[in-house]
Amino acid sequence: MRFPDSPLPHRVPRVLGTAIDWEVLLTAALLAAALAVGLSTAADYGVTVDEFNADDYGPKALAWYTSGFRDRSQFETVEFSLWYYGPWFHMLTAAVQSFGLGDRFTVRHAMTFTTGLAGLAALLPLGRIAVGRWAGLTAIGLCLGTGYLYGSLFFTPIDIPFLAAMTWATLAIVLMTRRMLPRWPATVAAGLLSGLAIGTRTGGIITHVYLLGALVLCAVELGAAHGRLQPRHLLQLAARFAVAVILAWLLAIAIWPWLQIGSPFAQFRIALVHFATIPMSFEFSHWGERIRTDALPLSYIPGQLLARLPEAFLLLLAVAALQAVLHAAVLVRRLAGARRLNRRMALRAAALTLARRRAVLLVCAAVLLPLAFLMIQHATIYDGIRHVLFVIPMLAVLAAAGMAALIPLLRRAPLVAALAGGSYVGAMLAAFAALHPLEYVALNALAGGTRGGYDRFETDYGSAAATVALRRIEERLDHDPSAREAEVPPSILICIPWREAMVAPMLRRPWTIETDPDKADFIIETQRSRCAEGKPVVLIDEVERFGRSFAWVYAHHGEDR
Questions:
Q1: Span 373-379, mean pLDDT?
Q2: pLDDT(559) > 50
Q3: N or C end of the chain: which has fewer CB within 10 A?
Q4: CA atoms within 13 A on the CB side of 382
């Protein structure tokens, strides 16, 4: 398998004098279909734990700017940890919500989904440059076919914007460094998009490492092309790196109020240290074992990916890894042979080979570097792997290389390949339909599937099923004459950890919000909070998927059931 630094031209039939690029056409159709489905179903998705405060953060961060930096409500009434995230996405969402287009959280889910989908769209050019034709479409398809990622696209308010920003920044760096000496417009774009990533989450600073590594490979190719690396080439590359970094920080400071109220770098360090040492400690299941958030095994992130990525995704990654090992072995053997003739020429050839494949190497770095850092640091991680969702699109590009390696084999049996592929996609769509709107609880066959892995992993850690249960009890009461005529609305406790008093935006009929399980007429339990245990209540409903319960509705004795 070959990883070209740029795709070879591909001739296609002309219709009305215009060349049809079928990959672009099919990708556009796939993205349009996903957008249509996503926007039409956004109202189905539940409000999750992190969305309550994020929805409060957006309008108050926006007020900081519209008041001429005088309204400090975001620093006074918003949960402090949100200061350490950049609010650009939340401000954008608040601005769209102000038009009154629909329910606040439906608009939020639509905005989150659209932003995430726009991030995935960047995989089309990224896959083409790093791997070759059809890799972009394959990568996008793999991402949309990953239930864990697809469901998260609607209600993961910090990590999905970060996924989009990181994907855009990685593409910009790849485009910038396609030339040995990057052009200034591409440099500006890479700098600004790196700034967007930094201004979303502190981890975006790793894009500086990506850029530096790519420019080092540009320097290697420049040196090989000119016989030696000229000082002026080093100065030109250094100038581009400096400009990109300066632009990145200027934008990050401009869009992140936390960096504006003190020394920007001191403020950034406070946020970085906070997330490196999150004081969060609780126990949860991982492959059937009980582990703690602050004492994770080194295998935690790889083990989670092994359970949550679809089978086809994992198979293609395995093929890509095998191909990479085989090609590396061939390259080493050739270099060893050449070294006996001319050691200097062999080393130069090896360096030049790596330099010309910098696009795919950058994608590999975008997977390995952040994961290695988190694993070595023993970072506090919880809620599955939502903190590293941004790595999945990069993994999809590498998996697309596995598909490229299999295509010659698939062409020998096109009918079998088409039937197998169609059956897999059909089974995936059927599973999505059965799980909706809880697609993010999906687990693959290695983990026992959603049914078999239910007690062995965190599944509905965001308590999304609570909204599904709420809609069902609301519909039931809407058809109950005694409930409609009652002078005092019934009371309800929705067991979403730390958010029980904030659930008003979820309600679509008159309710009295209760936080004491002994006083609530109805209690909705979630996997994260079984707050009705030991109470004199009767189970009246369950939200089930594949025979497993994700939310429970209870009524106190004496309530109409």
A1: 90
A2: no
A3: C
A4: 20
